[in-house]
Please model this.
Amino acid sequence: MADIPRSGNPVPQGPDFRRVLLLDIVLPVAAVVLLEWSGVSALVAYAAASVFPIGSVAGAWLRRRAVDIIGVGVVLGIGSGLLLGVLTADPRFGLVRAAPGFALFGIAALLSLFTARPLMFFVARAFATRGDPALTAAWNARVGVPRFQHIMRKITVVWGVGALIEAMLAIASAFLLPGQIALAAEPIIAFGMVGLLLAWTRGVQRRAPPIEA
Model:
């Protein structure tokens, strides 16, 4: 008998909101306000403020010694946004941080529905088995169980659509809101969406009946 997705903990832990508030919102906004008041250009101020979320990602990696996919997406998004800002001379691109990573994740999730193992199958397996060979083999054995497949596809659809919605909202905030407000709004949108998706997924986990492999 195998519980899906109850065995282990296939749902990633939620973000540390105190760390998010300090390193992703308060310090970046304070840095931008101070630098712009000092006469620094907006794009340079946004680049300097990015030190805090990047440092947060690096600190998380040092603590866990494991790759944080969301963190990697944030770092890549910050880098690509700043590069586009330089190439286009539009500092607004420097406000787009996690959106590219969310967009790529959402697209990958929805495209994976055309395969036997959708993307969230692998994400859930990583958290449920923690690399244990026996648990991994048991998890893989459930692929042919219709109920299991339904749950994995349902979760993949919701996370894929949610990630795309986050990307659209974040990009809209970067180009429609004043810079300092957009700088604070972007991480709120990102972590708010992740929090909603985690809460929904845990609800699915609690309601899921035992599934025989």
Remarks:
- The chain has one domain: 17-207.
